[in-house]
Specification:
16 strands, seven-stranded mixed beta sheet, nine-stranded mixed beta sheet, 14 helices, alpha/beta
């Protein structure tokens, strides 16, 4: 009833997928991405049962992870729930777990449509084609998640979440990224979500009065309980040098810190009047809400440039580089390049992160595949005030970047202008599975909102 095949992970060739479809002679085809799979009692039968009830093209399930060390001894066994698929789940690293059960007839039909030979994006191409049915027929069942723990898989990658975070932009994976971009672009063209190069709205249509902006640029630093790092960040911003006639200030928004952060900011402010300090009330703000307060403050400049409270600028030219880029083009947003460092300033692998997957020709389509657009980010404030940040503490920058990319060009600075400092208190340093799922689900949801907006625009 089931033909089982093994693939070495999500990255595989179109040839391998076609061979699986050709060799499968059973009603169902099981693709396993890891070699050591152990089933709970009647686990496979349950997957078949759900497949038959839902009429799904593919089903996947929650599972357990057996964590092993180098000598192959099991350290622990943990629950590994996965998340529901949605039309915005376009990232190529979506986690289905190690087992995918396919309806063989539907699998063969999809494979017959695969008209591009990929070296790395074969499985990605297959599941994107399967996902096309989500918005067409039986939307809840084309790709179905079974929220039950049905099998055990061995997990050998025991790195913390913060250590895995930058795998997708590692320069060593560039060939893979190029293929994945080509694959998702073809998918967007098939479903009507593709945006053609150069078709943008005019920024001049947005109301702008120079008198409304007291400085050219503002460095925005939202913070909460960053007593260890906030002084470094602020001094990094205050030490910036800009040419006449340009000017800048620094806006720090503290969200009810309890560790002495506010007192540190007040001490610095007493010595430098270009520092604007905003202390939030007790209601919910998160990072997005703190940004909204800053950009709508009358002291905010024409451009707003990001600086996280535990990071620093690379040198004293960062703000001027952003101003120059904005002034040279009609950009709604400008994104820089950063390097990963520890708290001592030593470079951490993979080093420089320049997000070369962004291109003027296709960046706003590829933005629906990747989990971030880069840093630091700068914004044209008259535009940003019409969009605003979502009031959340994760993914808020990605949401704004997606929205801007739909209608307005984004400029890039490919020189290093920012130090992204990694330490134990980074918000993404060591997330558990539940937190990672929550974050990934939210970004998939953002992509779903954005894709639906683009699909509606294409029909107008």
């Amino acid at each position: 009833m089931i033909s089982t095949f093994y693939l070495p992970g999500r990255v595989c060739s179109t040839k391998a997928i076609k061979e699986i479809a050709e060799k499968s002679a059973s009603q169902y085809t099981m693709i396993c991405l890891k070699p050591e799979i152990e089933w709970v009692y009647l686990g496979q039968e349950r997957m078949i049962q759900v497949m038959e009830m839902s009429g799904a093209t593919m089903v996947y399930a929650d599972h357990f992870q057996m964590i092993k060390c180098k000598n192959d001894e099991m350290i622990k066994c943990v629950e590994a729930p996965v998340i529901d698929y949605q039309i915005g789940a376009l990232r190529d690293d979506f986690d289905f777990g190690a087992v995918m059960l396919w309806d063989t007839a539907k699998l063969k039909a999809l494979v017959a449509q695969m008209d591009t030979e990929y070296e790395f994006a074969g499985l990605y191409d297959l599941r994107l084609r399967a996902s096309q049915a989500i918005s067409q027929v039986r939307p809840a069942s084309a790709i179905s998640h079974i929220p039950e723990y049905l099998y055990y898989e061995v997990e050998t990658d025991t790195r913390k979440s913060g250590e895995k975070l930058f795998d997708y932009v590692d320069p060593r994976n560039r060939a893979v990224q190029i293929e994945m971009e080509a694959c998702v672009t073809a998918h967007l063209k098939r479903i009507g979500g593709y945006l053609k190069p150069g078709e943008y709205k005019e920024l001049s249509a947005i109301s702008y009065q120079p008198s409304d902006y007291p400085v050219t640029a503002s460095v925005i630093i939202p913070c909460k309980n960053r007593a260890r790092t906030i002084a470094d960040a602020i001094h990094s911003a205050l030490n910036q040098k800009v040419r006449a006639p340009y000017s800048f200030n620094v806006i720090v928004v503290d969200d009810n810190s309890t560790d002495g952060t506010a007192e540190i900011v007040e001490s610095i402010k007493s010595k430098d009047k270009s520092l604007v300090f905003i202390q939030q009330d007790k209601t919910w703000h998160a990072i997005g809400g703190n940004w909204n307060v800053a950009i709508h403050d009358p002291r905010c400049g024409k451009y707003a440039i990001q600086l996280d409270s535990d990071d620093t600028y690379f040198d004293e030219t960062t703000v001027q580089r952003f101003i120059d880029c904005f002034e040279s083009g009609h950009y709604g947003m400008v994104i820089g390049t950063y390097q990963l460092t520890n708290m001592q300033g030593e470079i951490l692998p993979p080093g420089v992160i320049d997000h070369r997957e962004w291109t003027d020709e296709n960046g706003r389509n590829n933005a629906l595949r990747i989990n971030g657009l880069g840093a630091p980010r700068g914004f044209y404030v008259p535009l940003l005030r019409t969009i605003n940040y979502p009031t959340t503490k994760y993914g808020e920058d990605y949401a704004v970047g997606l929205r801007i990319s739909r209608d307005y060009p984004i400029g890039r600075i490919y020189d290093v202008v920012y130090n992204c400092r990694r330490w134990e208190d980074n918000s993404d340093a060591n997330c558990d599975i539940v937190a990672m799922n929550r974050n990934n689900w939210y970004k998939d949801r953002l992509r779903t909102f954005e894709l639906l907006a683009r699909l509606q625009s294409s029909k107008i």
